[in-house]
Amino acid sequence: MCGILAVLGCSDSSQAKRVRVLELSRRLKHRGPDWSGLHQYGDCYLAHQRLAIVDPASGDQPLFNEDKTIAVTVNGEIYNHEELRKQLPNHTFRTGSDCDVIAHLYEEHGENFVDMLDGIFSFVLLDTRDNSFIVARDAIGVTSLYIGWGLDGSVWISSELKGLNDDCEHFESFPPGHLYSSKEREFRRWYNPPWFSEAIPSAPYDPLALRHAFEKAVIKRLMTDVPFGVLLSGGLDSSLVAAVTARYLEGTNAAKHWGTKLHSFCVGLEGAPDLKAAREVADYIGTVHHEFHYSVQDGIDAIEDVIYHIETYDVTTIRASIPMFLMSRKIKSLGVKWVISGEGSDEIFGGYLYFHKAPNKEEFHQETCRKIKALHKYDCLRANKSTFAWGLEARVPFLDKEFIEVAMNIDPEYKMIKKEEGRIEKWVLRRAFDDEEHPYLPKHILYRQKEQFSDGVGYGWIDGLKGHAEKHVTDRMMLNAANIFPFNTPTTKEAYYYRMIFERFFPQNSARLSVPGGPSVACSTAKAVEWDAAWSNNLDPSGRAALGVHASAYGNQVKAVEPEKIIPKMEVSPLGVAI
């Protein structure tokens, strides 16, 4: 993984331009502290800042084909690179890097090879034979990527806004699952799964198939030549990630390098719900657990650094990014270079508490589709940039392409939340791992109510942020908010405060347009706010805004849904094979 920057067709091959590209590349140095490189071919520049994880000794970039006519700078992990190498018997690879296959696949298949890659990636490939280039981003947008255009006709590519915002006339987020070709001068979608059309699937729920797909997604991500760990909040998603990793670590190459003892990490305010649950899970699955505490003041002090690194003014993203940013620094100080994390599950399975109010399976499924499509603007952006601020990589097995296709092909009737039947949010995922003979997790953890990360680190956290904003944003300032910020006008003092900081770092109109907006309750899309008339008066991204659902909802109006039904036993072997 690394930070990439490319300037293509700028009509300037001078030393001064090269120095400028190097200067901008250094803005991404936090993403890749292990090595930096710059390849220039005429007026095209490919730069990178490397975080070395696979083949640290020889995998420096840019990467090339045999005669160096094709150059690639890439931020990513290609999990099926060994299989792909076997399909290229007539090619000679210069390194052991998993990304070394990209240039050679392009030689064999042209621009149509991207769907062959199983992993997360964003890359720029320069073909010097005809001075053309292609740019591509992974299916969901786990890796961050932006594209910009200069007045001189140049195209700019960067892992972060700060690599191009000062030099481009216009820039925007590079769309996930797309390829940009200089020959066509337009975007083309390469990722076209069945769920993308939002048509309602009808496949029956198969708990073992779902379990096996997730286990496969976790295991393939244990590809490493450096130390790693797992983020463990004590919620369902991170706990399953940790449990599966711990169960299958032995026998992997990762274990041969670094041993079979898995390290887990959690962050929160003193007394936070997540800390207690995470300790219990860690003891149950046998990890070496590291618990980090921070105070509300620690978080407030980090606000400006966090907004600079994550490049958004979205309230819920900032709330959750701050503790993750603080934890990532601690993790990196221990010598760990990457972690496995649980992002994506709530979008796929309708895990946010507002899904309790979904009126029917059609709207439930369509909302999950909308949420997955928007992940690159929210949780993927947070997980990528909060960790990479300290040169730490996050891998997310729930967003594995194959797993998503299995999970999104399930008839959404099975995902619907039905209190009277004992089916709480993400019931299909919980049921898949409810193994009486060889349990993955304690039962009460497996059926723990959803806590959004910004709530789970401590309920006082959000209240502290709101209080801090109250001191810095006056009522008079709010009266003029629509005139000062006509696009995505902040409706709360907290949002106004974050917006002021963002605009100071990124004053361009393209920057403010790159951030999503619209009404939301408990992380819903604007469309889902329509599910409950009461929500329009309680718009807040916290899970506690789901009145009548969350056990600690604002005002505590209604008791939370409790699991009421004993789940039937599913007998499987220790390896997950049905008996």
Automatic annotation (TrEMBL):
Site location (Important for beta-aspartyl-AMP intermediate formation): 343
InterPro entries tied to this protein: Asn_synth_AEB, Asn_synthase, Asn_Synthetase, AsnB_N, GATase_2_dom, Ntn_hydrolases_N, Rossmann-like_a/b/a_fold
Single GO biological process annotation from the record: response to stress
GO CC annotation terms, alphabetical: cytosol
Binding sites annotated in the UniProt record for ATP: 231, 267, 341-342
Domain of life: Eukaryota
Glutamine amidotransferase type-2 domain residues: 2-185
First-tier enzyme category under EC: ligase
Enzyme active site: 2 (for gatase activity)
Kinase in keyword set: no
EC number(s) from the headed UniProt entry: 6.3.5.4
GO terms for MF: asparagine synthase (glutamine-hydrolyzing) activity; ATP binding
Catalysed reactions listed for this entry: L-aspartate + L-glutamine + ATP + H2O = L-asparagine + L-glutamate + AMP + diphosphate + H(+)
Alphabetically ordered keywords of this record: Amino-acid biosynthesis, Asparagine biosynthesis, ATP-binding, Glutamine amidotransferase, Ligase, Nucleotide-binding
Name of protein: Asparagine synthetase [glutamine-hydrolyzing]
Organism: Phaseolus vulgaris (Kidney bean)
